[in-house]
Amino acid sequence: MTDLITRLLSLWSDGLPADDETAVRAFRELYTDPVPVNGTPMTAADLIARARALHAALADIRHELIEQVQTPDRLAIGFYLHGRHVGPLPTALGPVPATGQEVSIRATDILRITDGRISSIWVISDELTALLSLGVLVPGSTPLPAA
Prior knowledge:
The protein has a single domain (about 1-135), classed as Roll (Nuclear Transport Factor 2, Chain: A).
């Protein structure tokens, strides 16, 4: 599964092919289509849109693999996503305008593997620490009103 991890992180770190057809093929080599992400089915086109948004938000993207645990049909990886914040960063609080700052986002992906491809994903990202490091949230400030 080491090859799968390398290909997965590379797919999200490196620039995607400009044409969508080639990008769809690249995602379908690694993911079933659709693939449930946190329980929500996402197509290869949806994943490409997420990857393009990530690349618009962060320059010089790199992944730092911290930990991996695997079974025959599961893979869990803990990693940092590093980059320079150059465009709107999608978050649970809404898009964060570019700050020009370096940012690191801690994440854990729990993947189900079926026939060599990712068939289900649970993603846990530490957006709070990233938002604090970008100065979007300030410790001790008044919390946002509930929606």
